[in-house]
């Protein structure tokens, strides 16, 4: 586990007050590069710059609410019974989303069944509670 922002600031203060940066870093158990990186962050952003930040990437593939609304409206219309048909129509409209994304949106936002056309020509749908049913075309 890393050091808190206050601990880092204290370490920086002690290293700066020592005879040399190298000796101070050795005493504190950090590298010279870490010392200079922390010092730069402290000078730039203050104590908040020394706080641990998540290295996890920011999720940027969130679907906008207007795209969700269009998918739901298409699902309610008679011409688009399958997730694949909705995905194709969305691509034509300029919002390219996959069949699986359409299914995800419909599971989250849509109260009516989601239909799948099987290769056998049967319609299969999942309702909101994930009960699988088969419907003849």
Structural notes for this entry:
- The structure is a single chain.
- The chain has helices at 5-17, 21-28, 32-45, 65-76, 83-92, 99-109; strands at residues 114-117, 123-126, 132-135.
- The protein has two domains: 5-50; 65-135, no CATH class.
- Helices cover 50% and strands 9% of the residues.
- It has 137 residues and is mainly α.
- The chain has a three-stranded antiparallel β-sheet.
- Helix 4 (65-76) crosses helix 5 and helix 4 crosses helix 6 (99-109).
Describe the secondary-structure layout.
Layout: H1 5-17, H2 21-28, H3 32-45, H4 65-76, H5 83-92, H6 99-109, E1 114-117, E2 123-126, E3 132-135
Antiparallel strand pairs: 1-2, 2-3
- Helical residues, percent: 40-55%
How far the N terminus sits from the C terminus, by CA atoms, comes to: 59 Å
Average of pLDDT:
79
Silhouette = rod-shaped
Rg on CA atoms, Å: 28 Å
Query: How many strands?
Result: 3
Poorly predicted spans:
127-137
Strand order of the largest sheet: 1-2-3
Biggest pleated-sheet summary: 3 strands, antiparallel
Count of separate DSSP helical elements? 6
Q: Could you say which structural class the secondary elements and strand pairing correspond to? A: mainly alpha
Question: Percent of residues in beta strands?
Answer: 5-15%
Number of domains: 2
Topology as a string of helices (H) and strands (E): HHHHHHEEE
